[in-house]
Design goal:
The complex is a heterodimer of chains A (134) and B (94).
Chain A: E1 2-5, H1 12-25, H2 30-50, E2 58-65, E3 68-75, H3 104-111, E4 114-120, E5 123-131
Antiparallel strand pairs in A: 1-2, 2-3, 3-5, 4-5
Helix pairs in contact in A: 1-2, 2-3
Chain B: E1 3-6, E2 12-18, H1 23-30, E3 37-47, H2 49-63, E4 69-72, H3 76-84, E5 92-93
Parallel strand pairs in B: 2-3, 3-4, 4-5
Antiparallel strand pairs in B: 1-2
The chains are: A alpha+beta (134), B alpha/beta (94).
């Protein structure tokens, strides 16, 4: 199941609806569905923030492969942006030293089993894998 | 879609989804909080890092005057997100 979405955070409602339809079709439970929403939002908004001027829509593809969920996000004619290189966040930092922001990719890494990135022919491609049974 | 209301005892009631598309709306309201407050998550279904950022910025600002936010009635999924972010140590969560 795949769909392209306009490059605006306002597209999130449509994206959540798209994910909800996929979850219902594939009997994805509430906990995994929550994680799927969060992971896709964080990765999608990163694409939006890093290349706001890019006129192209962003493709989101969701696939259930047995006990694995595979999520692809593809940004076309994009500059490279590799989320796997995001620095570690010190979540034990005290309140005064805590920085606002920068938690998105940290949360993604916490909620999925694999996060991959490739840049091919001007396309930024993120692949996320989440195992449904452990 | 996120909605923020004021409860009968002055608590802040969140409902819907606290995502990146509602950050400006939320920031506008949280920026008006100047004293310790309770934030009720009873009807909040979802939160992402964008929502966490609004709450953290408010907590940091309030802490400068010895005030804080107390967060109550979180669902399990949202509580997990707070834990992953290490926010369970910078907020009182009941």
């Amino acid at each position: 199941m795949e769909q392209k979405f306009r490059r605006r955070v306002e597209a999130l409602d449509e994206i959540f609806e798209f994910i909800g339809g996929f979850a219902r079709e594939h009997n994805i439970d509430e906990s995994v569905s929550f994680a799927l929403n969060l992971v896709v939002e964080e990765l999608f908004t990163n694409f939006v923030k890093h290349h706001p001027e890019n006129p192209n829509e962003i493709l989101i593809r969701l696939v259930r492969d047995g006990s694995r969920l595979i999520v692809n996000l593809i940004d076309y004619d994009a500059q490279p942006f590799d989320p796997t290189l995001a620095g570690e966040v010190n979540v034990q930092e005290s309140l005064p030293n805590r920085k606002v922001g920068g938690l998105g990719i940290h949360l993604v890494k916490k909620m999925v089993d694999e996060l991959h990135y490739e840049y091919v022919h001007g396309e930024s491609r993120i692949t996320v894998i989440k195992n449904l049974e452990k | 879609m996120l909605k923020i209301d004021l409860g009968p005892n002055g608590e802040i009631l969140l409902s819907g989804r606290f995502d990146a598309s509602r950050v400006d709306y939320a920031r506008g309201i949280f920026n008006t909080i100047t004293s310790s407050s309770v934030v009720d998550f009873q009807n909040l279904e979802y939160i992402s890092s964008a929502g966490l950022g609004v709450l953290l910025a408010t907590q940091k600002r309030l802490a400068e005057t010895g005030q804080s936010l107390k967060l109550i009635n979180m669902n399990k999924h949202i509580r997990d997100v707070f834990q992953y972010a290490g926010f369970d140590t910078v907020f009182q969560i009941d």
